[in-house]
Design goal:
elongated, binds S-adenosylmethionine, single chain
Amino acid sequence: MTAQIKNLLLDTRLPRLEVRMLLEHVLGKPRAWLLAHDTDPLAPEVATAYEALAQRRLAGEPMAYLLGQREFMGHVFRVTPDVLIPRPDTEVLVETALECVAGQSAPAVLDLGTGSGAIAISIALARRDARVMASDVSAAALAVAAGNAWALTASVRFVEGSWYGAVPAGEGFDLIVSNPPYVASDDPHLGRGDVRFEPRGALTDGADGLEDLRRIVAGAPGHLKAGAALWMEHGWDQAEAVRGLLAAAGFADVHSRRDLAGIERVSGGRWPGRG
Ligand SMILES: C[S@@+](CC[C@H](N)C(=O)[O-])C[C@H]1O[C@@H](n2cnc3c(N)ncnc32)[C@H](O)[C@@H]1O
């Protein structure tokens, strides 16, 4: 008997949702089409393409890399193994950023370590008047981010280099945001699950997990206008340490905000300027 599309939908090696998403991807068709055509004959090349993806998934590769995309703040971002897969947790950083610049016209915003561009592009799309700059040390990541900005029609200026070294001299910002690598280099989680497939340089600072956060706090005053804000994402247990870094550097109104799970996920403060 000829195999039908529904034979693949019955693949029990993977969760049903993943089977459906992989099949939609190889067929290039949405869910409604799949349901209406489940008794169509299964083309051998579709079965082969599906099996190749299923094998990669069974080996642990993240769905976002297999599908080549991930949704963030309601926008679809292309992702490749050159970039971190945007996390829902990071949406609290974008929401905080948008609150910070609410009421300011044409705010200048800097996103340090932009990866896929998820944060910078989401801000630029929500605030079309903003002047958004985004940096990364990885040229490959910046190529993905620039492609996303183009596809989503966001206006973002991308610059390459390490932290503030990428920022042209004399640029002053109303807001700096960053989701830097903050996992300690000896954290066993780096060897488990999806993160095994993500760029190591996007996950860990190669030190205690606070090294890049320290650099970002230390360099911020030279790039913030008086009264401007710095907000950073960090690990579940780093909020107190990051608030300490901000307070020691002279930031005012230092506080943290929680994600949907109730974890202090981002910390920030306002730069009072040198008086
Ligand atoms: C945790 S990922 C965040 C990516 C993206 N902003 C997001 O939230 O999905 C950290 C990013 O920082 C970049 N990065 C690492 N070291 C850097 C450095 N010294 N200067 C600039 N960016 C750096 C990595 O390439 C990576 O894209």
